[in-house]
Amino acid sequence: MAAAKSDEDRKVRRQDYMVCVLGIALVLLAKIIA
Amino acid sequence: MSQAQVAKQGLGEQIVKAIPGLMLVVAVAYAALYLDGYMKEHFKAIKDALSINDVIIAIVLGMIIRNTVGIPSVLEPGLKYSTTFTKTGIVVMGTKYTWASLVKVGTVSMIFIAIMLFATVWVMFRLRNKFTLTDTLGGCLAAGYSICGVSATVATGPAIRAKGQEMTYAIASILVFGLTMLFILPPLGKAIGLTDAQFGAWAGVSIVNSAQVLAAGFAYGEDAGLMAGIYNMGRVLLLPFVVLYIVMKVLGSESKEAQDINKTQFILDKFPVFVLAFILLMALNTAGVFTEAELKLSGTFMNYAFALGFASIGLTTKFSDMKAAGKDGIILGFIVALLKTIVALAAVMWILPL
């Protein structure tokens, strides 16, 4: 079924969650050490 | 190694295997940042004239290494994080904007971006019959050349049941176009006399790969990079809708399979979640949460993330892959993308309120 969530969708979603955490962590780090 | 085996591989093992390659990525990114600083000090005129910056140097250095001395297989696992680095940089980039800057770009620009996206897909499908391409390859090319290159192709491919090599082909074609534009648009923009805002909008619509959009924008100037970032984000936000449109076109909107698709669920599945973190940081910046020093350091971190991402892209760009991709898809992609580039240039010069 074309509409089913594919493995690629899941992989991209996991990567997106990770970059959200990484990006926010970098800004928090900047806030702490600046 | 199959995907199932990779999935079973422990996270610890994956990290250990990635370390050597990541060290090379860091070395190339560091060299690029150093060379950029050196050129700024000693060859500023040439640097400005050619619109060379750290991200372009990182890509070129990586490509030189990959295509001359080559990359030992032990380094390969660490080279596949270009999208992770680039997306992280885009999230941090949220601190560079406020709601006011978004409003300034305006509704007109968002409508223009949407029209360009859907028009690109439509034109691609109209011209596809003149080339020897399958429906699925046409769909991958339409996704890649309209929205944001690699991510869009990856989001579309499985939904239209494209083969792995068709997705790889589409991605290679898009990256070749982006690389070409990355070196042509900034000097051309300067020759035409575009402002930073105009160039950023132009690059943001014409170039499809997010990393290349930002590289071209920042090569032109800081404000151009920020404008390109906003346009890029506009395209990324529309990704699920355009992918749905392509899937309906490939399957045929009258077909039972197409009618069976739960469209809301489809859009939710494809929604680029990292955009939310970008918006959160932009909202915090609008609320005045960050000081000048904190914003400056965040900007430095953003540059590091981009330098790492672009170094990875350069290190994984093989000229032989581009050659193997064949000519039909590349010709069709280039024709459509060039049309878009010309229309976008006319729009930023005479229509959009920039």
Description:
The complex is a heterodimer of chains A (34) and B (354). By secondary structure, chain A is mainly alpha-helical. Helices cover 79% and strands 0% of the residues of chain A. Chain A is built from one helix and no strands. The longest helix of chain A has 27 residues, at 7-33. The model of chain A has no long low-confidence stretch (mean pLDDT 84). Chain B is an all-alpha fold. Helix content of chain B is 79%, strand content 0%. Chain B contains 19 helices and no strands. In chain B, helix 6 crosses helix 19 (328-351) and helix 7 (135-146) packs parallel to helix 9. Chain B is globular and about 60 Å long. Chain B starts with a helix and ends with a helix. The model of chain B has no long low-confidence stretch (mean pLDDT 85). At the A-B interface, helix 1 of A face helix 5, helix 8, helix 14, helix 15 and helix 16 of B.
Radius of gyration of chain B: 20 Å
The multimeric state of the shown protein is: heterodimer
Largest sheet, strands/sense/barrel of chain B? none
Largest β sheet strand count, sense and barrel closure of chain A: none
Overall mean confidence score, pLDDT of chain A: 84
Percent strand of chain A: under 5%
Report the strand count of chain B: 0
Share in helix of chain B: over 70%
What is the general shape of chain B? globular
Spans of chain A of 5+ residues with little confidence (pLDDT < 50)?
Answer: none
User: Biggest protein-protein interface?
Assistant: A-B, 26 and 50 residues
Secondary structure category of chain A: mainly alpha
Rounded to an integer in angstroms, the radius of gyration calculated over CA atoms of chain A is 15 Å
| DSSP strand content of chain B | under 5%
Shape by Cα distribution of chain A: rod-shaped
Low-confidence runs of at least 5 consecutive residues of chain B: none
Instruction: Kindly report the average pLDDT value of chain B.
Output: 85
